[in-house]
Design goal:
- It is a single chain.
- The chain has about 300 residues and is mainly beta.
- It has a single domain, classed as Lipocalin (Beta Barrel), CATH 2.40.128.
- It is about 5% helix and about 60% strand.
- The protein has one helix and 17 strands.
- It has one helix at about 1-15, and strands at about 40-55, 55-60, 65-85, 85-105, 110-115, 120-130, 135-145, 165-175, 180-190, 210, 215-225, 230-240, 240-245, 245-250, 255-265, 270-280, 285-299.
- The longest helix has 14 residues, at about 1-15.
Length: about 300
Amino acid sequence: MKQFIKRSLCSALLLYPLLGWGIDLQPNDIVTPLPDKRYAQITYFNTENTTYYKNGSVVSTGAYASPVVDAQSAITKLIGTYTLADLPAASFVQLPYGTVRPAGSLSGSPSSTGIGDLALATAIWPYSNRETRTYLGLAAYLTIPTGGYSSTQAFNMGSNRYTTDIQLGYQQKMIGDLDGMFAIDTIWYGGNGQCSVACLSPNKNVSLNQKPVTTTQVGPIYKINQIFTVSAQYYYVAGGATSINNVYQNNVINTQRFMLSSLMHTDIGRFSMQYGRDMGVQNGLMQTRVFTLRFLKEF
């Protein structure tokens, strides 16, 4: 039993950087942007994670008697739109600053505060028809390990590894002011050669590797009027099993979750709010709350 709890703890710590899973899209993110625009966006992100699952069963002993991991951050994003090979395109750079705070039965682990990993992205739209409200977009993302990381801590703002992500999104008119959207993305992970405490090893140079994670999201988007838009999204996340020094950890992700979103267009900029949570978890901590508040301003 002691060895099982140890493997369970390791599993959850390794999965923690994935608590945001794939690239969550806001309502109308798939809609083709107007060219030659510049935007700045600030996001407040808050999440709570409790209850640890191992192969579909709750672990409630030892370190997981009452686990809590809270994270909050402020994320700055700069966005530019343009034309690339006669196709609409957009790029952004994004940098978070925040805190990861373990509590409850994990309170013995130190918190982490500081800069997170830098993210870069470029998207193009191979097909766009504003008259029929039909859009097809492709995006590529790169995350650079600029965030604070210590191998002597289990929880860090940074992940100490590169990630790449490819995403496809499709949106079209359903009826009236109701649209439907579908998106799928896959994240590939670089190795972390300094996984010590998170891998439950006294040695610094422990190698962590992870299989790709695929996230599918689908749902309706409804435009109430020229000011308000709302949506509801369902997500299915799969993959992501880890290996430590080439030893398989048997911790495949299989998670279902939902997100409710609203947009408000005003004279000073666009406000958006999202709330969601996990509905089912196979391995790892359950995300019991996700809340984001964003402000987007053209300049």
